[in-house]
Specification:
The protein is mainly β. The protein is built from one helix and 23 strands. The strands form five sheets. A six-stranded antiparallel beta sheet has the order 3-2-6-7-8-9, with no helix packed on it. Strands 5-4-23-22 form a four-stranded antiparallel beta sheet, with no helix packed on it. Strands 10-11-12-13 form a four-stranded antiparallel beta sheet, with no helix packed on it.
Length: about 300
């Protein structure tokens, strides 16, 4: 499954924000063979410290909190892409040792590496970036949404290698998520229409045997992940709530499969107003965590 996911928000590398529609969930994927063959991927994606006297490059700050009782926080930074286009944070499993942080937008997917960053070109400006294990082979690769058409790459190389395309949902669906909804090891797409999530079961036109669940509000940010370590992906919703006269961002996390009655069984306050929500496994654990990305 895919612990990468798209979120409902993307953030520009300038000071303006842009709303697109994660992330992006059971243990899915491994990495991108094409990318790993050309650059050394850095597990953990920690940005190298600036040398003394040198101007520090602007970084995106990533932080994740476990949804269990301990709520341990993991944090790291990655460089910003060299573009003013919106940057969508994704968590993609490239090496089966935990997810890697990816900033995508404007047909560019930037992955931090041991040598700095590597950029893969896939899709077009205006596409919604995704990643997932599209064929159940154990490796996440890029994908994009264009209207109601999904273009799924087979490698982390410019152009994406062999690209498969299929139609699912409607162009007006408010967001798209990727996840392993049935625990079979393959990531597929889910879309939200109102507050109802429609999850495909195959990366083919129409999505195969589609399952549906209502959950939360149409205005909630939504993420996908295996937050309970159950072997299949479910959903987490983030919304702002007023607590003692202040605004608090709260994730409402479900563990049941899509196609059943979804209820939040955990409430996780995390992040600040302006943070972009994300979900993934920054460490090699058995479950996904909710997270936040903060741009300068």
């Amino acid at each position: 499954m895919s612990t990468t996911r798209t979120t409902s928000s993307a953030r520009s590398t300038s000071s303006t924000s842009s709303t697109s529609r994660r992330t992006t969930a059971p243990r899915r994927t491994g990495g991108a063979v094409g990318l790993a063959a050309t650059v050394a991927l850095a597990v953990g994606m920690l940005a190298a410290p600036a040398t003394a006297g040198a101007a520090a490059d602007p970084n995106a700050e990533w932080s994740f909190r476990g949804t269990g009782s301990t709520g341990t926080v993991t944090a790291f930074t990655t460089p910003l892409p060299p573009t003013t286009l919106p940057s969508q944070p994704l968590m993609c499993d490239l090496d089966e040792l935990g997810d890697q942080a990816v900033l995508a937008g404007g047909s560019l997917f930037q992955v931090a590496t041991a040598e700095g960053t590597a950029v893969v070109r896939f899709g077009r400006a205006g596409d919604v970036p995704l990643c997932g294990d599209w064929d159940g082979g154990g490796e996440d690769t890029p994908g994009v949404r264009r209207g109601n058409v999904y273009h799924l790459a087979s490698s982390w190389t410019d152009g994406g290698g062999t690209v498969r395309s299929h139609r699912f949902g409607q162009a007006t669906d408010s967001l798209a998520l990727t996840g392993d909804w049935d625990g079979n090891g393959t990531d597929t797409v889910a879309v939200r229409r109102g507050n109802v999530f429609h999850a495909s079961r195959a990366n083919t036109d129409g999505g195969g045997a589609v399952v549906r669940s209502g959950f939360g509000r149409a205005s909630d940010d939504a993420l996908a992940g295996d937050f309970a370590g159950a072997g299949h992906d479910s959903l987490a919703l983030r919304r702002a709530e007023q607590v003692d006269g202040r605004t608090e961002l709260v994730f409402h996390v479900a563990s049941a499969r899509l196609g059943t009655v979804l209820r939040a069984d955990r409430r996780v306050p995390f992040g600040q107003v302006g943070d972009v929500p994300v979900a993934g496994r920054p460490l090699d654990t058995d479950r996904d965590q909710v997270g936040a990305v903060r741009f300068p």
